[in-house]
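QUALITY CONTROL LOG
STEP: pairwise intake check
CHECKER ROLE: data steward
CRITERIA: each record must contain a sequence immediately followed by its structure tokens, with no blank fields

ENTRY 1 OF 2
RESULT FIELD BELOW
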Amino acid sequence: MPTYEYPVALGLAYILLVGCLIRAFFVFVGLPASVGVMLSGFIFQHFFQSDLFFARDELQGLSFFLVLLIAGLEIRSKDLQAHIFVMALLPASCELIGIAVYACKVLEYTPVEGMVLGSVLVAMGDGLVIPKMKEFSQTFPDHPLPRLVFAWAPLEASFALTAFGVLTGLASPAHQAPTPLGTILLANFLRLVATLALGILLGCVSCWFIASRQKMRILKLLFQDPATEGGKTEGFLVLISVTLIALSLGKGESGSELVPMGFCP
């Protein structure tokens, strides 16, 4: 019987969603909203506190993920022009290939191992650059550089993370028999398609829910007007929660994922 490690991202999503719902209920019945938030935290400490304490390293990774999410929210379809893709892909590709060549020639790695090393070491300074661009945009609100970086940084990070996932699948561990190349390529293709399809579905459902809070009577009673600051905060918390749920779906050791994809080795 395989053991399943509870994903921290999923637990955080539960805390945010339940806290948002309890807060909305307390506001609806005329009670202080802060009491509802504290009550949800008190309830979850009996189920999740120890897991959260031992997952401090994973929380650092989640902070990087949330930085990318916030930067991605700044992107519009019209921002994804050809020069943005060149800036996001060309420097990272050159760096990745350069590291791989060095690993093969000097460290005597195989080409696949060298590419995996390159995808690990390729520079992604999004966690530092994006906050700096936030400060820059406040000082110079009309300058085009922050919006350029907000569009470029998530694309570069997505490229590096996707390359790492694909290349890791090509490198068979020493204790396992090599997997046929065609099977690996098909598996990675199916993973990419399934990830994109699920992401689009969750994004559409989340946008519909956030936009419909004032159109459905029950949601209108529970949630604030989306045009207000409180309503915008609620929508943002819902979006983060759904994103954390999506992130946690594939968490777990190989063969013991929360949502296993049996057709992909």
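ENTRY 2 OF 2
RESULT FIELD BELOW
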Amino acid sequence: MSPMIGHRTWVLIRRIWITTGIALTLVFVSWSLFAYRANAEAHLATIRDSLVVNVRHEGVWKFSSPRAVQVPKVGLLFFPRSLVDPTAYAPLARAVAAAGFPVTIVELPRRGAFGGANDPALLGRALEQMRKPGAPPRWVVAGHSRGAVAATDFAATYPAALAGLVLIGTTHPRDVDLAALTVRVTKIIGTNDGIASERKSEANRRLLPQATRWIRIEGGNHSQFGWYGFQPGDHRARISAKEQHARMYTAILDMLRAVADSVPPAI
């Protein structure tokens, strides 16, 4: 083969690689944009009624019951998965608010999938919401996927600001050590989670308090912790989304009620 022909062959191969790479990237991005959209049930959960009202302003969603006659003892601050439409967690927020616990969802920046989940500004914004006038005196902080990364970083940065921690569909804490945390902690994992596998979650068990409550949802996957499409890289669930949502909701409600019934630590 002459040098000229060899050069032309490699140019052609390189063009094929580049074209194929661009095509695959476009397919992945298109699938992701569709998969991360909130479903119809989630959008319905944002509608105000006599049971729950919600307000959205500058990346913060608030769900509460208009029937509350006094400031609730405990609130839930939730970090959603990055890239996913936060509306995808409205059904959870609505159900928790209807049970008497106000919910604040703090959106992650779009770059959250690539490191923005531990942005100090994000954690500071969450703390600011907790300290607003009329806010509950005690808070449970929770998060799903990259949102759980933000939750672990919040717990490490402001341990005195939370009364409970719920980590959903995540291998974290991985980069911070929360073993000495003195508040209640619940870790919820799905055995069919293709993003945050059970094996990887177990590998970081030592970074959580020994008293952590572990909840294994048999057959649950990553995508069904929210109300959105099937996420690229995930495994198919072996249980219905309704059942997985119910298990998650029950675990969060158990945490909120336990904190509400406990005696606040002396200051």
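INTAKE CHECK: passed for both entries
DESCRIPTIVE NOTE, ENTRY 2: The CA atoms of residues 131 and 257 lie 21 Å apart.
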